[in-house]
Sequence to fold (331 residues):
Amino acid sequence: MKKIALKVLKFLAFFAVGAFIFWLIYKDQDIERIKSVLKNDVNYLWIVISLIVGLLSHISRTLRWGLMIEPIGHKPRFVNTFMAVMVGYLMNMAFPRMGEISRCGVLSRYEKISFTKLVGTVVAERLVDMISLLILLAIVFFAQFGKMLDFIRRNPEMQEKLTSVFSSPYLIIGVIILVILLFVFRKAFKHTALFKKIIDILKNFKEGFISIRSIKRKGWFYFHSVFIWAMYYVMLYVIFFAFDFTRDLNPIAGLTTFVMASFGMVAPVQGGIGAWHFMAIEALSLYGVANENGVIFAFVAHGSMTVMIIILGIISLLALPFINRKKDILV
Fold:
C-alpha cells in the first residue's frame, strides 16, 4: 500500500511540475489568437509528414534494439519489440523513466527473455543516445556559439542550479558515509543473500550492457543509431514549414531548436511537458521568433508527437495479448 501511495505521489509531483511550467508559459497568452492560428494558419500536411518521419524513427529504434538483443541469445519478433517500445513511450507519459522498465517487462513477458538482460541492453542504448545528443549539442554549440552564449546569459539560473547540485555538501557527505559503511561492513555483506542476489543481477545486467561489443551486424547498428536521431531532427524541422513565422528559418536553426528541446525532454516530467515547450520557445527566440508565436509552435510540435505516442501506445498495449494469444496457449 505504501509503495502504491509513493508511486501516486511521485506521479502527482512530476505532473505538477510539468503542468506548472506549462501554465507559466501559456497563462498570459491570447487564447483566441492561438485558436485562430491553429484553425487558419497552420499547414497540417507538414504535421502529417512529421508524424510519418517520427514513425520511421520508432521503427528504426525497434530494429536497433533487436540487434542489441541478439548477442544475449534471443531474436524477438519485430511486432512484439515494436509494441514494447511504444508501450515504453506511453509509460513515460505517466512516470518519467518508467518507459525503459516497462518495455523490458513487456518484451520479457511475451518473448521469454531475461528482464535484467533486457535492462542492460536498454541502458547501453540510452548511453548511445546520450552520446549522440552530446555530439549534436557540440555541433550546435560551435556552429551557433554566439547564440548559445546568448541563451546562457538569458538563463543564468540553469548554470547556477547545476553548480549547486554537484557542489552540495549533503551530496558529498552522503557519498562519503556510504563508501565508509560499505568498506567497514564489506566482509559481512558479502555473505548475505542480498549481496548474492545483487551479483546475479549485475552479471545479467553486464551481459546485456556489453551486447554492443557483440553485435554481429555492427554496420546496421551504426546506421540505425544515426538514422534515429536524423529522423528525430527531421520530425521537428519539417514542422517549421507549417508556420509562416518559422518556414524561412535555416536547417541549423531547426537543429538548435531540436537539441535544446531534447534536453527539455530529459527533464523528470511526464513526456517533457512544460520543459520541452520552454526550451523550444527559448531556442526559437534566438532566431527572432516572437514568444507568442513560439508558444504556438511548441504546442503543435509537442502536442502532435504526444498524441501519436498515446495512440500507438494504447493500441500496442491492447493488441499485445491478442497477437500473442496462440503463443501463450501453446506454452
Remarks:
- Residues 31-326 form one domain.
- The first helix runs from residue 2 to 26.
- The mean pLDDT is 78.
